[in-house]
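User: My advisor asked me to double-check a structure prediction for HEAT repeat domain-containing protein before group meeting. I don't want to rely on an old file, so could you generate it fresh from this sequence?
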Amino acid sequence: MKQDSIAALLDKYYEGNTTLAEEAWLREYFTQEQELPEHLRKHAVQFNGLAQQQEILLDESITDDWLLAKIEKPEQQQKGKQLFMPLASGAKVWRVAASILLLLGVFWAGFYFAKQQTVSQENEMAALRQDVKDLKEALATPENSYSASERIQLVSQEFDKAPDDAVVDALISTMNHDTNVNVRLAACEALYQFKENRKVREAFIQALKQQSDPLMQITLIDMLVNMKEKRAVQPLQELAEKKNLLPIVKDKAAQGVGILI
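Assistant: Sure, here is a fresh prediction for HEAT repeat domain-containing protein from the sequence you gave:
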């Protein structure tokens, strides 16, 4: 075939209008060992690369075809003609590679986020355990080791919504036995955060029977009434009938009984 005919066929090939037979002829022409004119050598490089690419795609056809079938619908091809092979094959390979990279990116992002969340939760738990340890140690030491204001700060700190039993026990002990009424009141307020806890509600009822300071008595009455704790009715009645008790406390107790009954 003359060089002019080859040039015309190449133009037709790049426009995507060649037949399968014409493309096969071009591949065979440019891949055979022969001395080509200088203006045709650049085309030989392309067709040699295409031949190598087709061999690689043939070896990987099982994997690629299976993955492509999962990712996209087969495209309809023109009968008797084939689109420009480097463009079509390259597009498919790039789509497969992009899909794989996207899946890997999503997987890596999810793994990284889960790992960071786990580390954050572990750090929060470690800090909470340290806070609990410090509180228990502080409240277990003699009172003269900490001033009243320092003890108030200890029991007034923010606690987790589901506190450690040891924290609850320490706060209950402080509410009942600290020598400073302001510290006892602060412990009482801290425990009220956990008013749904049955142990805390029972502690308030028992404290009402033990506390003699009017401020503590009034605070406990208000809390028990607000919690609608009907088990407090009897100790409230006893408090309302108690002799040598401030009238304001007796009136408060009587009002509480009237609300809870």
